[in-house]
Structures are given as C-alpha cells and as structure tokens.
Design goal:
The protein is built from 3 helices and 3 strands, in the order H-H-H-E-E-E. With about 100 residues, the protein is an alpha+beta fold. It has a 3-stranded antiparallel β-sheet. Strand 1 and strand 2 form a beta hairpin. The longest helix is centred in the first third of the chain and has 18 residues. It is globular, with a radius of gyration of 13 Å. The model has no long low-confidence stretch (mean pLDDT about 95).
C-alpha cells in the first residue's frame, strides 16, 4: 500500500465511523484495495473522493459529510481537509470530523 493511501485510510475510516457509523469500515477498506490496485498517483485523494461519491450515488447520504455550518450541502475534500465551499473555509482535517 502506498504511504499516502496507508496514511489516509485510517483517517477516512474514522470520519466515516464518526458520521455514519462503523458499518461502513469494510466498504472503505475494500475501496482502498481497489484504489491500490490502480496504482495511481494521489491514491489517498482518490480514496476519499471514491468513498464520498459512493455515499452520494447510492443515497446512503447525499450530503456526506454534511457541512456543520449549513447542513444542506456536503463538505469537499482538498489539501488533507474537509472544506465548506460555500464559505471557502476549512472545517476539519481528515480524521477529525465530529459526530452528528
């Protein structure tokens, strides 16, 4: 596993568990395995984006992770953190989302 992916995986699992529960731990691990097989640069970013896209596409939670400032849109991941794009501010570092 790439160092980037190995670093991001437990942080993303924590964020998912804090916000959606422990039931998605295996999904995150399986997605990480798929990303690892691709051997792409920025594997950690791809993992976060793929997991978020899964939650949106399958309607698990179409605003995951929900912006705590507005609650009507998701936070977006960039530069190792979750951002409110409406206000342009960093809300939490990856792995530091608060439970709902």
């Amino acid at each position: 596993m790439s160092a980037d992916l190995a670093h991001v995986l437990p942080l993303l699992q924590r964020d998912v568990e804090q916000t959606l529960g422990a039931g998605y731990r295996q999904l995150v691990a399986d997605t990480a395995a798929d990303v690892r097989e691709l051997g792409v640069e920025g594997a950690g970013d791809k993992l976060v984006e793929d997991v978020q896209q899964y939650f949106h596409d399958t309607h698990v939670d179409t605003t995951w992770p929900a912006c705590p400032r507005h609650r009507r849109h998701p936070l977006w991941y960039r530069d190792g953190a979750w951002w409110c794009v409406e206000d342009g501010v960093e809300i939490a570092r990856l792995g530091e989302l608060e439970s709902r």
